[in-house]
Amino acid sequence: MDHAIWTFQDLARQINVDYGTVRDSAVYDYFRNKGTNPLEQDSTYAELWRTISKNHGLDYCVSSPSEGIRKAKKSAYAFLWDMSVLEYAALTDDDCTITVSGNSMSSKGYGIAMQHGSPYRDLFSQRILELQDKGDLDIMKQKWWPRTGRCNLNTHAGSSPDGRSLRLHSFAGVFCILATGLLLACLVAALEAWWSSNRCRQEQPKEVTEVRARRPGRWGEDTATLYFKDPNADVSPDLVELQYTQL
User: Fold this and answer.
1) What's the pLDDT score for residue 72?
2) Which of 18, 22, 42, 72 has a CB 3.0–4.6 Å from the CB of 79, allowing a cystine?
3) How far apart are CA 154 and CA 137, in angstroms?
């Protein structure tokens, strides 16, 4: 695949690659439900469904998964199907010409078929749920599910790592926004500190104390005069004269 298509949005925007799925399958119903739902906020599914459902699905859809995989190998066609099936097909492909892009569109669970009314149903269901909650199923998948086979999912000739790889320059915009925000925050903090200090100096009461001493030895005539500015006064400082007598 020469086109960098990693998401459904990329697939819906481009016009060079056809895409479809198996007619009347669970995936087909999934896109139909999402594409025809008036409450769906993402218009991508509506665009995908318009292409998939052309001529009742006869134009771009196939009759079986194997036909879809063969069509994807021979032409510019994107086959939408279960991620596990596509990964296995890509790993075991004879020519290693299949690549799997994007993530799974939904999480589906698999069960074990039993006879109707079997007494072991609840026991198996409980044990499977316990394995899932503990993460044992994921551990077993990593152990037994092949990540490399005849082909490698990460080194296909048609894959384009640069299409979705994140390099340092990809985050340049984020760093610029963070640096700008930090600079503005420092500037606002400096202005706030300057404004607060000026306000405190203006509102602080100014006290000037003047002590006038009479001649030594003249008890009872020493006078202390205290000048202070009333914070609520608008015109001139109030003058308060305090007299005390030395004993």
Assistant:
1) 93
2) 72
3) 23
Domains of the chain by residue range: 8-162, 171-203, 207-243
Which of 102, 104, 105 has its CA nearest to residue 160?
102
CATH architecture of 8-162: 3-Layer(aba) Sandwich (3.40)
**Alpha-helical runs (H) found in the chain:** 8-13, 26-35, 44-52, 65-74, 83-91, 121-134, 136-144, 172-203
Q: pTM of the prediction?
A: 0.54
Radius of gyration for the chain, computed over Cα atoms and rounded to the nearest angstrom = 40
How far apart are alpha carbons 7 and 2 in whole angstroms?
15
Q: Are 27 and 64 in contact (CB under 8 A)?
A: no
- Name the residue among 87, 98, 59, 77 with its Cα closest to residue 11: 77
